[in-house]
Amino acid sequence: MTKTRAATLLALLAVLAAALLPAPAAQAASVQEVTGFGPNPGALRMYRYVPDGLPAGRPVVVALHGCSQNAPGYGTQSGWTELANRWGFSVVLPGQTTANNISSCFDWFQSGDIARGQGEAASIMQMVDRQLADTGADRSRVYVTGLSAGGGMTSVMMAAYPDRFAAGGVVAGLPYGCAQAAGSPYTCMYVGASQSAKQWGDRVRAAAPAGYAGPWPRLTVFQGTADYTVKPVNMTDLVAQWTNVQGTDQTADAEDTVGGYPHKVYKNGAGATVAETYSITGMGHGQPVDPGTGPGQCGTAAPYVLAVNLCAAYQLGHAWGLG
């Protein structure tokens, strides 16, 4: 065989081999950092997750990590990116820096970071605006949730921007203005603050835009009964705060169990749910997840992300009508 014929044969074999090989798999969406997202008085970082092919008009979930965590990790471990793929919405993942807080905690206790138009709260809102502009998302279907310090910052966003969020999910977090009411963030976390329901509600009303009278975001709280970092009294105070804002009492209108855990629902005079709680029996400080492939399962166990057979992200997304 001549060298020319041999070269021709090898070229034909290469073409046939390439035709038989499977095509490269399409790259799935991943968490991406966004820079230059707007004025950033809180000096935070913006990450986001947008499923491939997401159409305009879909909801946005803002998910805030806890202390010692990072934004991409929390978005994945909590189950939010998984559910975004399943149900079709995008996720904004604000990231704290050690320059702001040595433990990477959002500063839910600093007066300069919890007021409308200021500090970290304003930076998070800038991220939401950038996400709305980039994805054409539904402005009426923006939700916020977070763990621990992220839960405290969730309360901040609900209070300072009640006109921008349809609902919020606080996981092992604190009521708005708790550090100021207790005189210290640690007293708030470990003991709680002595406030009446009206005093709690007044703190939210003072944070909202002047003259704002509603609608107010719906609240959901997840709290471990064995949480010694953020004591369960904070869930009681959150309910007192937000039922007062919503103009109803602190007596549950319905009680059942979800995943074997006590679940309470609080409704207004029109019968609409304004607050609900999940008391996770025996759980310590962390985000509840339920790893697996079942329809109600999501999340991956990690430090402060606890496998307890109930996925908080799923329960929130289902209540918010995301899927």
Rg, please? 23 Å
Average of pLDDT: 92
Beginning-to-end CA distance, first to last residue: 65 Å
What oligomeric state do the depicted chains represent? Answer: single chain
From the spread of the alpha carbons, the general shape counts as globular
Strand line-up across the major sheet: 1-2-4-3-5-6-7-10-9-8
Structure description:
With 323 residues, the chain is α/β, with parallel strands linked by helices. 33% of the residues lie in helices and 20% in strands. It is built from ten helices and twelve strands. The protein has helices at residues 3-20, 71-77, 80-87, 119-135, 149-160, 178-182, 185-190, 197-207, 233-246, 312-319, and strands at residues 32-34, 45-49, 60-64, 90-95, 142-147, 167-171, 218-224, 254-258, 261-267, 273-280, 287-289, 305-307. A ten-stranded mixed β-sheet has the order 1-2-4-3-5-6-7-10-9-8, with helices on both faces. α8 packs across α9 (233-246). The N and C termini lie far apart (65 Å). Residues 1-27 have low confidence and may be disordered.
